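Need C-alpha cells for this chain, all 140 residues.
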Amino acid sequence: MQINQHVNIEDNEFSFTFTTSPGPGGQNVNKVATCATLKFNVRESGSLTVFQKNRIAAALANRIDRNGILRITSSRYRSQSANKQDAIERLAALLCAALKPRAVRRPTKPTKGSRERRLEAKRQNSSRKSARRPPPRHDD
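Here are the C-alpha cells for all 140 residues:
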C-alpha cells in the first residue's frame, strides 16, 4: 500500500477482523460479519523508519493503544470487501497526514498601529468601568 512517495507498507503488516455491523445491511445485518477492523502495529512495522514511527505515534497518540496498535473500524458499507477497502484507504489517509511535515512557526512582532489600538481599547475599557463606580463619599 502506497502512503506517499517515500513510504510503502506491505500488506502483511496489517490484519483484519470482521464482526457484525451496526450499519446498513438489511436482513443480513445480524447474520453476516461485514464490519471490518484493520489493525496496524506501528511499533513493529518494518516499512517505517524510527523517525516515521515517532512522528506517527505523536500525531495519532489518541488512536494508538499502549501496545502500538492502530485500529480502524469501517461499517459504512453493506459488503465486507467494501468496508475492508474503506479501512485501508482511511489508514493510508491517516498515515499520510501524520507523516506530512509541519510548518515552522516564525514568531512575529505586533505592529505599532496594533499596539496603539490595543492600548487605546484598554483606556476606553478602563474609563467605561471607572464611570460605573459610585462617586467617592466625602465625610466632613
